[in-house]
Amino acid sequence: MEGWLLYLLLCWPLAQAGVVQDFNHVERCKDSLYMGTPPRGYLNRANKKICQRLQDRPRYVTLYDPNRRMPLYSAYTFKKSDGEKSVDQPWMYEPQLASSLGSSNMEPFSQFGNIQRLMDSQATLEDYADVVQYERGHLNPDQHQADPVDKAATFALTNIVPQFREFNIGPWAQHEERIRQRLNNYCRGTAYLVTGTTTAGNMIRRNNNNRVGIPEYMWTAYCCTDYDHNAPYLERYRFPAFGAYGLNDRVNNAVVEVPLKTLEKFLKDRMEVDKNFQIFYSDCVSDEM
């Protein structure tokens, strides 16, 4: 009996691959991260690590702030695509944020019974119902995926933050498309992306309660160590890694592209991270370079 109990304790983290203790196993989304290593330096131990799964397969990684009910970042591998956006996808939630006994797969909102437990643990569709100035902005965008199920998996509210409409459909959408084209054309191997948020404390409120954190800035970075060394210089110098950030606002919201270390320096002053904050393992420098 003791041996069986020990087996359950050892295997439980592998079986329950929704909310996880770490990402260091394939079933816990390790393959979504460069060298299997997540961004380091986040200080808040209450943040939840989510292996975003759909149809029993890991799709991407999210670090989630349950107090602000918002993702701090999503990390994923880029898939070459034509950039077509999905339509009529159902929005989904993460069952294991609401209950440790919940499914390890994201599920449509219509399938959850205890609405109060759901509301306590994460953002819901109702939080976005009466805030017309904001749109549901993806961190892992569906147009950076090719497989229909990978695209569908991006429609989880744990991968969504409130973005001003002018920013979401303007500079941010233009940057997502710019990165799609760059990686399509010049990244020969696997491209790893991390897209995240900073917050100044502003919240979406509902029924006089703070509900969902509103990002002050959006930021993103990619890592592709196997790239076309004959690419035009204006593209080539942005490899193997580069970053960008933009103010989530109606005006003055241009997305600025910067080297990876410049982005990290910018973020250290605006996030709950320590001095060792690092987006990619070894700054996306492979042993072969």
Automatic annotation (TrEMBL):
Residue ranges occupied by any ENPP1-3/EXOG-like endonuclease/phosphodiesterase domain in the UniProt entry: 57-287
Range of residues in the leader sequence: 1-17
Key word Hydrolase present: yes
Pfam families per UniProt: Endonuclease_NS
InterPro entries: DNA/RNA_non-sp_Endonuclease_sf, Endo_G_ENPP1-like_dom, ENDOD1, ENPP1-3/EXOG-like_nuc-like, His-Me_finger_sf
Molecular-function GO terms, alphabetical: endonuclease activity; hydrolase activity; metal ion binding; nucleic acid binding
Domain DNA/RNA non-specific endonuclease/pyrophosphatase/phosphodiesterase stretches: 56-273
Record flagged with keyword Transit peptide: no
Tree of life domain: Eukaryota
Xref: Gene3D superfamilies: Extracellular Endonuclease, subunit A (3.40.570.10)
UniProt cross-references to PANTHER family, sorted A to Z: ENDONUCLEASE DOMAIN-CONTAINING 1 PROTEIN ENDOD1, ENDONUCLEASE DOMAIN-CONTAINING 1 PROTEIN-LIKE
Protein name per its UniProtKB record: Endonuclease domain-containing 1 protein-like
Gene that encodes it: ENDOD1
